[in-house]
């Protein structure tokens, strides 16, 4: 039996991450559960993007990762403020790290990392958009509804940028994103 190539291993890993994320997002029935799920997803995005900055040599991947870190850091800060104001208990650091580890991109190197990172960003942003749309439409909390509506455009922008990155790096192009 042959060992799957790196992209196939990554696709299998994405399927596991997707299943874990969707199982969690489907359970985000209460405002506190949405806070936990959105926070974990945001932290995973930040950590994956930090890894991308360290591993990539591509200017476009690096620029995108910096933007993702900034936007998800802002979103997590706002989410934490809402949770504290509402008196919702946040997940313990240990619980949060456990969720985040399940969402982390498997370590790859070089061009295969760039392809894997871009593909991961498409999948995770599609999932986050679905979670945030659900919260924006059905939230029991006015603050979380406003939060989801505020950050949906940023998530949608990240998704479009990630799709461009995925297309460029899948082809092996040295294209850079135009902002």
From TrEMBL:
> Which of UniProt's keywords are assigned here?
Signal
What Pfam families does this protein's entry cite? DUF4142 (PF13628)
Q: Where is the DUF4142 domain?
A: 31-165
| Protein name from the UniProt record | Membrane protein
Signal sequence: where?
1-28
> Membrane spanning segments where?
none
Q: Which Gene3D superfamilies match?
A: 1.20.1260.10
